[in-house]
Amino acid sequence: MKLDSKAPEGPLEEKWRKHKKEMKLVAPNNKRKYEVIVVGTGLAGGAAAASMAELGYNVKSFCIQDSARRAHSIAAQGGINAAKNYPNDGDSIWRLFYDTIKGGDYRSRESNVYRLAEVANEIIDQAVAQGVPFAREYGGLLANRSFGGAQVSRTFYARGQTGQQLLLGAYQAMMRQVNEGGIEYHPRHEMLDVVIIDGQARGIITRDLVSGELKRWEADAVVLATGGYGNVFYLSTNAKNSNVTAAWRAHKKGALFANPCYVQVHPTCIPVSGDYQSKLTLMSESLRNDGRVWVPRKKGDDRHPNDIPDEERFYYLEEKYPSFGNLVPRDVASRNAKIVCDEGLGVGPTGLSVYLDFRDVIKRDGKETVAAKYGNLFDMYENIAGENPYEQPMRIYPAVHYTMGGLWVDYNLMTNIPGLFATGEANFSDHGANRLGASALMQGLSDGYFVLPATIGNYLADVKPGTRYGTDHNAFIEAEKGAQDQIDKLLNVNGKRTIVDFHRTLGKIVWDNIGIARNKEDLEKAIKEIQELREEFWTNVYVPGEKNNYNKYLEFAGRVADFFELAELMARDALEREESCGCHLREEYQSEEGEAIRNDEDFSYVAAWEFKGVNGQLQEELHKENLEFEFVELKQRSYK
Amino acid sequence: MSKDMTIHLKYWKQAGPDVPGHFEEYTLDTVNEHMSFLEMLDVLNEELQLQGKEPVEFDYDCREGICGSCNLVINGQAHGPKAEVACCQLHMRNYKDGDKITIEPPRAAAFPIIKDLVVDRSAFDRIIEVGGYVSVKTGSAQEANALPVEKEKSDEAFEYAACIGCGACVAACPNASASLFTGAKLAHLNKFPQGEVERSNRAVAMVDQMKEEGFGDCSNFAECEAVCPKGISISAIAEMRRDYMKALVS
Ligand SMILES: Cc1cc2nc3c(=O)[nH]c(=O)nc-3n(C[C@H](O)[C@H](O)[C@H](O)COP(=O)(O)OP(=O)(O)OC[C@H]3O[C@@H](n4cnc5c(N)ncnc54)[C@H](O)[C@@H]3O)c2cc1C
Ligand code: FES
Predict the structure, then answer these.
(1) A10, A31, A189, A272: which has the fewest C-beta neighbours closer than 10 Å?
(2) Residues B126 and B245 in one domain
(3) Is residue A114 very low, low, confident or very high in pLDDT (cuts 50, 70, 90)?
């Protein structure tokens, strides 16, 4: 299979403009004749549904939660990037592009990333017009802050609730279209399969999560904006309903899954406190601006942290990376936390945490100043951990946070299946091997408000308006039957281990072997363990309740089944990529100082996997999209 | 390591909207102080399943106090005993060994029970649907800084915009009123010049919809403010009423 990115030719700055000029259009009175399904109501799906309905398409919107407003995007804290250059600190679209492509360790497409940087400014305008209460200066203009390794202040924020405010903006725009009749709105509906007729995506199968009923929906195009797959790790910062099911079932129907091994681990999360732990909570990265990360120099030093004198503290980031210190990028910070804990220097009851200490900044600036900056984060920490960070250091540990991999899409955000689009975290497109802070919100909204509404017209212009096969077409019947059979199979196993138990065990395998650092031996071992556990899952899982009723555990069972297959693909992908890049650290490919070593000669490509079946073992064929760099020069990262 | 606590639970079970519900009881012996309230329910459900019993259904997603999915009424209090904390962020260190805890769904005519502790809050969506937005199409926005907004006003707008739509305000209100929810959205949008344009139509549409959904009137009990996990002030309700009356007479 030849993968065509469809990236337009020409100078970087001209590509999107030129493409917009050349794309086919659908006439206004014809738009009403098209049905578009949007699965997901996060930033990517909510913005797309609203914008396409405003254009005149008939949109059907689906989500798992009881309201579109509760999509996982709601939880994003820190902010959203855009190169407005309001602070006049030398920012530009080029610089935002460059930082993003460099941050992704040169494993993304120049064309896509440049467009993202270009469109970002419009997102801020749009959000402000909707009434998103971004932080402002006393003069009434928008405020910015710096975030995650950038040397300019380009992050817009609404306290620690930027995702919430942006999502409510998109949600409200969506609800306006529900009111106007442009959107048919279906919360508490989970997509279980995509329906393909004559090679084109023509609909989906959903399960009504209240009645359990399976339903068929027909459309001219299907958009998957279903978020990331971080919950394959069981413990992550993702919301509990986040899952891979929609993307994975599309994958099983032929959509390529790209770079599954690229997973971002966030360095500052509240550590696990026990087996009952159900999710991990992120503490904003901004804490590293003032907090100092350390562990005791001596193994097993169980003194209270405040009783350990400075010379017996190992400020490992400051020592190893004198120029960036505690502000090294996420992957470097995470990896080093793991290294010190693996060496037995970790603190806390489990030995799996490090200190993040505010003693010095409190001494320097006073408690009040620190409280003004971080008060809500300190309160949150105290509420969860039961310790007061004004008086003793926080304990933190890395946790899975974001998945850069996802469905392969071309420049038009279309998968290799015509009519099937993927946006937001669900696609692989813009972040390469590592995502910079405050750029996921940017990508979700760029895809949803501006890119997809334009590119989908280019596709639909070639679909005859009013084409209908009817939901009694064989493809619908078969897809529904497949979904039904799986539900029945899950309910009929009637085994002895709970779904949570399986998921937790799977998550541990994935975390230990396909987490912060990977190596050949562990990856091969992980594949075996995943296969064995998957087999046990299908013979020993216990799924309670009935299918024709509200049944959360049945929902989870289906999602965990998909995670079992995805996990194996992640390991395969990580094994195949014999280099270190971005968040993918292969221990075999690092310098003596532990710096990642990229291999551009052999691995400057997108790994796009094609599903071939699963039979004890997952069968997948690898396709490569070569990444060409015309405009930037590839460099090795160094944060020394 | 902290010691395990014993907690006696009494929780609501109801198979569906049209069948009578009842309380069930269970004693958990392995409750840890660091568990969140919902993690304790996870543990309950694991034990129930291993005994071949049906788990209890409850709504949640983010478990960070921001999505508004969770909405348990705990010992008669929406979201439990801690101020400005959603029940997913309530930790068991707020309880002691031997405590008895009763868990119910929020009870309101406009929030019919789906199953056990899960209710249908789609009425909230419909209130937003009729006017909870600024009518601006994608692409038609002007340059963001062309319209300065006083910092104070914008900060105040944020306070109201912080609503997570959990419905605790409805659960706590003796009249099951949705006035705080509705008022908060109005107050958020009205603070901005771009929201001001539709101010009066918005108030009428949303207040009328609220009534149509079967929510009660506000009698100033202020219970809503007391349980709101985001601490939203009831001054939003006064403002909503003024706007509504003004729109009706003008
Ligand atoms: C704690 C936290 C903090 C973050 N902070 C930031 C930040 O400060 N800045 C930043 O840029 N990024 C941040 N991120 C990342 C960012 O929030 C996400 O990447 C982004 O919001 C994803 O948006 P999305 O629209 O792609 O998907 P989501 O918001 O995850 O939405 C997915 C949608 O798909 C639906 N769905 C999923 N599967 C199905 C199915 N099978 N059937 C039907 N519906 C389905 C869900 O119901 C939901 O509506 C943060 C992430 C976390 C976890
Ligand atoms: S689960 Fe999201 S607010 Fe409680």
Answers:
(1) A10
(2) yes
(3) very high
Is A247 domain-assigned? Answer: no
Percent of chain B scoring above 70 in pLDDT: 99
Q: Which of A427, A414, A425 is nearest to A460 (CA)?
A: A414
A400 alpha carbon – ligand 2 mean position (Å): 19
Ligand 1 pocket: which of A241, A421, A441 to mutate (most atoms within 8 A of CB): A441
Minimal C-alpha gap between B146 and chain A (Å) = 9
Are both A393 and A494 inside the same structural domain? no
Provide the shortest C-alpha distance from residue A378 to chain B (in Å): 14
Q: Give A6: exposed, middle or buried? Use CB within 10 Å, 0-12, 13-18, 19+.
A: middle
Q: What one-character DSSP code corresponds to residue A209?
A: T
Residues 6 or more apart whose CB falls under 8 angstroms from that of B71 comprise: B59, B78, B79, B87, B105, B106, B119, B121, B166, B167, B168, B171
* Encoded amino acid at A376, one letter: N
Distance, in Å, from the CA atom of A98 to the CA atom of A102, rounded to the nearest integer, reads: 6
Q: Is there a contact between A171 and B114 if contact means CB atoms under 8 Å apart?
A: no
Q: Ligand 1 pocket: which residues have CB below 6 Å? A: A 39-45, 62-65, 71-73, 75-80, 162-163, 190-191, 225-228, 237-238, 242-243, 245-246, 282, 401-402, 424-426, 438-441, 444
Query: In chain A, pLDDT over 70 holds for what percent of residues?
Result: 99
Q: What is the mean pLDDT of chain B?
A: 96
Which residues of chain B are within 8 Å of residue A274 when distances are taken between CB atoms? 32, 34-35
- A553, amino acid identity: Y
Q: Which ligand is nearest to the CA of B36?
A: 2
Q: How close, in Å, is residue B125 to chain A by CA atoms?
A: 7
Answer whether residue A583 is part of any domain.
yes
- The structural domain count of chain A equals 2
What is the extent of the structural domain holding A271? Answer: 265-401
End position of a domain, from candidates A401, A426, A445: A401
Mean pLDDT value of segment B136-147: 96
The ligand 1 atom at the shortest distance from the C-alpha of residue A68 is: 49
CA-CA distance, B163 to A633, in Å (whole number)?
A: 46
What is the domain extent for residue B14?
A: 4-114
CA-nearest residue to A54 within chain B is B137
Final residue in a domain of this structure, among A366, A384, A401: A401
Mutate to test the interface with A, among B67, B93, B134 (most CBs of A within 10 A): B67
- Cβ within 8 Å, pair A239-B50: no
Inter-chain contact B34–A550, Cβ cutoff 8 Å? no
DSSP string computed for A74-137: GG--S-EE----TT-SS--HHHHHHHHHHHTTT-S-HHHHHHHHHHHHHHHHHHHHHT----B-
Is A499 within a domain? yes
From B40, B42, B64, give the residue whose CB has the most ligand 2 atoms within 8 Å, as the site to mutate.
B64
Mean pLDDT value across chain A: 96
Does the structure's ipTM exceed the value 0.90?
yes
Instruction: Round to whole Å and give the CA distance between A290 and A223.
Output: 42
Q: Catalogue the active-site residues of A.
A: 330
Residues B21 and B67 in one domain: yes
The band of A285, judged by pLDDT with boundaries at 50, 70 and 90, is confident
pLDDT for A78 beyond 90 = no
At A508, which amino acid appears? K
- What span, in angstroms and rounded, lies between the C-alpha atoms of A603 and A288? 33
pLDDT band at B2 (very low <50, low <70, confident <90, very high): low
pLDDT category of residue B227 using cuts at 50, 70 and 90? very high
